[in-house]
Amino acid sequence: MPELGRLTARQIAALAGLAPFVRESGKWKGRAMVAGGRKSVRTALFLAALTACRHNPVLKLFRDRLVAAGKPKIVAVVAVARKLLTILNAMIRDQKPWQTA
Question: What are the extents of the domains in the chain?
Answer without folding.
Answer: 9-22+31-94
